[in-house]
Amino acid sequence: RDDTTHPIWHVDNFPFDKEGNQTYLKNFLYVPTITKNLVSVGQFMEQGMQVYFNHRGCFIEKEG
Predict the structure, then answer these.
(1) How far apart are CA 60 and CA 56, in angstroms?
(2) I want to staple 52 with a disulfide (CB 3.0 to 4.6 A). Which of 39, 40, 45, 59 is the partner?
(3) By the 8 A CB rule, do 22 and 16 touch?
């Protein structure tokens, strides 16, 4: 376990596209000193998205 703190350099909305449908991750944090990409499932759900996991990976759908 590593309790090192990392400064947040920037907070913004991050666009991503799936098959021509663009949506945004709200309050996306840019932390350049973290060497792995981290995703908060809870934040996706708070933004009205569904998150599914199976043997092929993780899938995110926008409700509606």
Answers:
(1) 13
(2) 59
(3) yes
Name the pTM for this structure.
Answer: 0.52
Q: Are 36 and 51 in contact (CB under 8 A)?
A: no
Q: Report the half-sphere exposure of 12 (CA within 13 A, side-chain side).
A: 7
Residue carrying the six token digits 């376990």:
1
Calculate the alpha carbon distances from 18 to 22, 37, 45, 56, 59 in Å. Answer: 6, 19, 18, 17, 11
What are the Cα distances from residue 29, in Å, to 1, 10, 21, 58, 64? 21, 6, 22, 20, 26
